[in-house]
Design goal:
The protein has helices at about 20-40, 75-80, 105-115, 145-150, 160-165, 195-200, 210-220, 245-265, and strands at about 10-15, 45-50, 65-70, 90-95, 100, 120-125, 180, 190-195, 225-235. With about 270 residues, the protein is α/β, with parallel strands linked by helices. Strands 1, 2, 3, 4, 5, 6, 7, 8 and 9 form a nine-stranded mixed sheet that branches. Helix 1 links the parallel strand 1 and strand 2. Helix 1 crosses helix 3 (about 105-115).
C-alpha cells in the first residue's frame, strides 16, 4: 500500500520490475545530485511492479519523502506511473531506472519551464553510454518504420537510412538547439507540469508496455507545447525491445496494434 503525501514543487516516479540493482543505484545517485544542485527536495514514488520487496539498500537524503507502491502486481509501465497521479508536485518527472540525469539537468529543466509557461512537457537530450546522441524525438511512425528500426539488422538498414533519419527527426534534433513541438518524445524522461498531466489523466491504461509514451505525447501536443531542450542532459542505457526476447516482441506488437487503432494505421 502507498501512503498519501502533500504535493510540493517536484514529484518523481520510477516504475521498477526486477531492476538491475547496480543500474538503479546509479540512477538514484544521479537523481540525488541533480535534486541537490537544483535545491529541490522531491517526493519520490517507487512503484514495485515485481511484487517483491526490493533489497534497495539506498540511503536517501534527509527530507526526501519516498513513497513505495507495492502489492499491485505487474500492472505495466503506464499504469504504474499513474499510481503517483494523486500526489503530483508542481512539476512531475517520469523517469526510467536505467537513466542518469546530469548534475545540472533539473536546474536547466526547471529554469526552462519557468521561462516558458506555455511549455507543459519537456524532453531532454539523451546520449548512450559512449556519448553518442540518441534520437528520442519522433515523427508519427508507420509500421514499416517500426519494423525496420526494431528488427532489421543494422548492416541491412542502408536502403532505409533516409527514411529512418526522417522518422527520428535527425534533420531537426541536435545537441544545441531547442526544438518546439516534436510530435513524440520518449517516456524514459518526461518533465510535466502538474495541470497538464492531470488533464491528460496520465498514461492510457490500454498500453501495458511500449507505445504508451507515443500516445501520451500525441495527446499532450493537443493541449500544450512540447519542447526538446538539449541543455537538459541525460544518459540512457535502455531500449532495444527486439533484443529482449520473444516476450518483449509480443508486448511490442500488441501495443503497436493498440496505438495504430487509436491514432490511425500507417503502413509505410
Amino acid at each position: 500500500m502507498s501512503e498519501s503525501c502533500a504535493p510540493g514543487r517536484l514529484s518523481i516516479s520510477l516504475v521498477l520490475f526486477r531492476p538491475d540493482l547496480a543500474a538503479l543505484a546509479a540512477t538514484l545517485e544521479a537523481l540525488v545530485i541533480a535534486c541537490r544542485t537544483a535545491e529541490v527536495v522531491p517526493v519520490l514514488h517507487l512503484v514495485d511492479n515485481g511484487d517483491a520487496h526490493l533489497p534497495l539498500g539506498f540511503a536517501f537524503p534527509p527530507g526526501w519523502r519516498v513513497v513505495w507502491h507495492r502489492g499491485q502486481g505487474n500492472v505495466g509501465f503506464g499504469r504504474g506511473h499513474n499510481l503517483a497521479l494523486h500526489a503530483m508536485g508542481e512539476y512531475h518527472l517520469i523517469l526510467n531506472p536505467d537513466l542518469e540525469l546530469a548534475p545540472d539537468a533539473l536546474v536547466q529543466a526547471l529554469a526552462f519551464m519557468a521561462a516558458h509557461p506555455d511549455c507543459g512537457l519537456l524532453a531532454p537530450a539523451a546520449r548512450w553510454s559512449d556519448g553518442r546522441l540518441q534520437y528520442l524525438c519522433k515523427r508519427m511512425p508507420s509500421l514499416l518504420d517500426l519494423f525496420v528500426r526494431g528488427f532489421v539488422p543494422a548492416r541491412l538498414r542502408k536502403p532505409f537510412a533516409r527514411r529512418l533519419a526522417r522518422y527520428e527527426m535527425q534533420d531537426l534534433v541536435n545537441a544545441h538547439d531547442v526544438l518546439w513541438s516534436p510530435p513524440i518524445v520518449s517516456g524514459c524522461c518526461m518533465l510535466f507540469r502538474r495541470q497538464v498531466l492531470h488533464a491528460l489523466g496520465g498514461f492510457d491504461p490500454r498500453f501495458f508496455l511500449y507505445f504508451e509514451d507515443f500516445d501520451l505525447s500525441l495527446r499532450a501536443g493537443r493541449i500544450t507545447r512540447i519542447a526538446y531542450v538539449p541543455q537538459v542532459r541525460v544518459v540512457h542505457h535502455g531500449g532495444h525491445a527486439a533484443r529482449k526476447g520473444w516476450h518483449h516482441i509480443r508486448l511490442f506488437g500488441a501495443s503497436a496494434r493498440v496505438f495504430f487503432q487509436i491514432h490511425g494505421w500507417r503502413w509505410w
